[in-house]
Amino acid sequence: MAEESVLSDELLHQLIAVGEVDILVGVPTYNNGKTAGQVVRAVQVGFLKYFPRERAVLINPDGGSTDGTPDAVRNATIRDYRTLMTSQPLRTLHRISIPYYGIPGRENALRTIFAAADLLRAKACAVVSADLQSVTPEWIEGLIRPIYKEQFDLVTPLYHRHKFDGLLINNVVAPMVRSVYGSHVKEPLGGEFGLSGRLARSFLEANLKEGQNVRSGVDLRLTTSAIRDGYRLCQAFLGPRIHAPAYSEPDLTALLHQVVGTLFECLEADQSYWLSRTGSNAVPVFGFEYELSRFESTGSECSRSSGPVSVNSPRSWSPFSPQIPSRRYSASGASTTSSSGFPMNSG
Amino acid sequence: MTSNSSPWYKRAVFYELHVKAYNDSNADGIGDFRGLLTKLDYLHDLGIDCIWLLPMYPSPLRDDGYDISDYYNVHSSYGTLDDFHGFLDAAHVRGIRVITELVINHTSDQHPWFQEARSSKDNPRRDWYVWSDADDRYRDARIIFLDTERSNWAWDPISKAYYWHRFFSHQPDLNFDNPAVREEMWNVMKFWLDMGVDGFRVDAVPYLIEREGTSCENLPETHEVLKFLRRRLDEHFEDKVLLAEANQWPTDVRAYFGDGDEFHMAFHFPLMPRVFMAVELEDRKPLVEIMEQTPPIPETCQWATFLRNHDELTLEMVSQDERDYMYDMYAKDPTARINLGIRRRLSPLMENDRRRIELLNGLLLSLPGCPIIYYGDEIGMGDNIFLGDRNGVRTPMQWSGGWNTGFSTADPEQLFLPVISNPLYGYQAINVESQRRSAHSLLSWVKKILRLWKSTAVFSSGTIEFVNPANHRILAYLRQKDEETVLVVNNLSRTAQAVELDLRRFKGAIPIEMFGGNPFPRVGDLPYLLTLGPYHFFWFLLRRF
Questions:
Q1: Which residue of B has its CA nearest to A51?
Q2: What ipTM was assigned to the predicted interfaces of this complex?
Q3: DSSP per position, B51-75
Q4: Which residue does chain A place closest to B501, by CA atoms?
Q5: pTM of the model as a whole
Q6: What is the DSSP string of A83-139?
Q7: Per the CB 3.0–4.6 Å rule, which of B153, B318, B411, B428 could disulfide with B135?
Q8: Which residues of B are catalytic?
C-alpha cells in the first residue's frame, strides 16, 4: 500500500513515533545545505520561544539533495542558543528529514507535509522555505499564532519588499486575486504560509480526488481555493525576505508562463465563484509592520519605503538581463526557483 | 532473588504517616500511638518495611509539629513515652522499622532553650541561636516561605535584637557554630536511638550554618556538622539510618552522602514534580533529563523517592516555565497553590484516574531508590484544599464508611481536622474496609506491586539505562543488577502507543511479564515491537532459558 500513499513507510514509521501534535512546520528542501541548518534552528527556537508547551514537529521532505542537506537538517541544534533563551523546552523537539515520493518539486513536498499534518492531527501548520537567510523565530509565531490562537485557516505572508521586488505579484497576481476573488491578499503565492489542519486536510483531499500527482501552482491554488471555500484568511508581517542565491537562473519566460498560467487555471476553475461576486474585502494583518528607515545598496535589500531611495538598478533589472547572473530575488518575489534547482509553482 | 547483603534501608518500602491522623484510641479526636499500634497489622499486610513518623514531639503545633518545644518527649495528645515504646516494640515484632523526624535546624520559639536565650544577652543559652542587632546580615539567603515571611530575621522585643529563622518567624534557627548545640543534638538522637528508633528523617539540613556573602545553603560547615552527627551515630549504633531532607538539585544533594560518611539516604526532590510533568506532557523528556543529571552515590547509600508527602508538591526545583505549566495543569484553582507548590494528594492530582495512579506508582517503584508512600495514597484518598496551610493533605485516615471513617469515636466536631466527605473522595467511597473486600481495588493492587518490587533487588539497587525509542511518549529503561535484568516500558500517554525497542544485545532472551508471569516473544535482531494501552506499563524480566 505504501507505493500508493503520499507517505512512505519510513516516514510513517517516524510519524508514529511522533504521535499527535499541535504544531507542524514543513521545510521542503532540495540542495539547500548552506541555509537549511539555520532555517531549522529558527523554527526550533520559534517552537521554544512562542510555543513551549505545544507538541511540535518539524518535517523536512527532501527532493533528493546531493549536497548534504538532510545532514544539515539533522545536525542543526539550538543547544548553543539555550543560554540566551529564557525558556527551556518542556517537551521533546521532533524533527524528521526524509525523501518524499514522486517527482522532486514543491507540489509533492507540500503534499507530504499536508499528509503528515493530517495524520498527526496538527492544529496548525506552516511551510517555510529552506533557502531563507532572513528567517527568524518570529516568523514561526507570525505564521502559526493566528491559526492556533485566533482560529484562522490560512496565513499569507507580508514581506518588506523593495518596490522593484516582486513585480509579478504586486502588479499582476495580487491585483487579479483582489479584483476577481475579492480579497486583499498582498502575497497570494508567498513562499511561506501557515494553514490550519482542516485546510491542509481539505486541500489534500481535493488534490487527491483530482487524481493529480503533480499540479503546478500549488501555493496560489491554496490561496484561491481557501478564499473560494470560505476559509478565514489573514496576513502576517514577516519583515524582509532574503534568500540564498540560486544555483541556476530561472527562465523568465517559463516563470511568467507558470505564474500567469496557474492564475488563469484558477480563474477558470473557480468561475462559478467569482462571476457573480462584486466588491472586495480587507484581510486582517498580524504582526508589527515596521518600516526600514534607510535603504542601503549593500545592506537591507527590501524596503517598502516610498520615499527617495538609491536603487541598484542593474541588480533590480537583472532578472530581465541574462548577462548579469548574480541576484538574490526574483521578478515574482515569491519562492520561485530560488536555490532549489527544480521549477516551482510560484513564479 | 532478593539480596539480603545490602543494608535494610537500601531495599525498604517506607510509609510516611502522622500519628494524629492515623487512628484515635481514646476518642479525643486526635490519633495516638495506642491507636497506631492497632493498625500495625494493616501496615504489615500492606507490605511496608519502615514507618516514617512525622513530628510527634511536644509542640505548640504552629507548623504541624515542626516547631518542637521539647525533644525528649512525645506530644501529650499522642500519648506518653511508654505508649511510644509500646508501639515501637510492636512494630519491631512485625519486622517493621520506625524512623522519626529530627528537626535540628530550628526549634519552636516556645522551646525553653529559646526562652532562656531571649531572656538576657548574657544567658548561657543566648549563643544557641543566631542573633543580630541589625536585620541586614546574610542578605543573599533566600526566603523559603514566601507566602508568609518577608525576611529571615525577626525582631525579638524581649531581648531587643533580631533572631535568624529560615522558615516561620516562630521557628528560630539553632546556632550550629556552637559546639554545645551539636552535642545537645547528639544527645537528642541518642535518647531516641537508645529507645529503639531505627533512624531519623533529618529536616531542612542545608540551612544549619550561616555565612556572610553566601546563600547560607549547603555550606561546607554544614556538612561538618552532619558528619559529626553521623560519626557519633556509627560509634554507638549499627543498622540505623539518617535520611536527609535537602530540597536541592541532585548534584547538590550528592554532597550530603559524603563518602558514605554523612547521610545514608536523601530524598530525590526534583524527580517528583517531573514524574507529574512527564505524564501531563506525555513526554519522557523531563524524567530522562533529571535522571541523567543524577550523579552516582556511594554503594552504601540510597535515594528516597516519593510521589506525594505531607508538604506541598514542591516546585522549587523546576524552572519558571515548568512551574507555570505545573500550576496551569495541576492547580487551576489558585487555592491549591501554596508557597512554591501545590497542596494536593496523588489521587486528586491524577483526577482519580486509576490508570494514571497506577502508572505513577509504577514509575515510583521502578526508578532507582526506595519508595516512600504517603499514608492514604494506597487507597486513593482525596484532600481538602480549603483547610488552610497544608492541612488538606493531613486529614484522618479513611478506614471505613462508618462513624468518622473508623478513625475516631469522638464527635465529628471534635476531630483535629474534618474527614474528607465529598462524593468522589469521601470516606464513604474511599476507605480501607471496602478496598480490602475487592481483589481489584487500588489497595489490593498496591499490595501486589509492593510484593513485586521486593521480589528482586534490581529495583532497589540495580543500575538504570534508558532505551530511548523514537516514540517520546514511551519511557523505557533497563534495570540491572548482577545477572538480573528488568525491562520497564511505560506509556506516558492517554492514548494507545506502539513502540519499537532496540534490544538486540538481549537477543535470545525471553521477556517475562512480571505481573502475570507470562512469557512474551523472544528478543531477536529486529526492533522489539510492543503496543501499550493508555498509561499502561510493563515490567519484563529478561530471562534466558
A1: B321
A2: 0.74
A3: EEEPP-S----SSTT-S-S-TTS--
A4: A17
A5: 0.84
A6: GG-S---SS--EEEEEE-SSSSSHHHHHHHHHHHHHHTT-SEEEE--TTBSS--HHH
A7: B153
A8: 203, 245
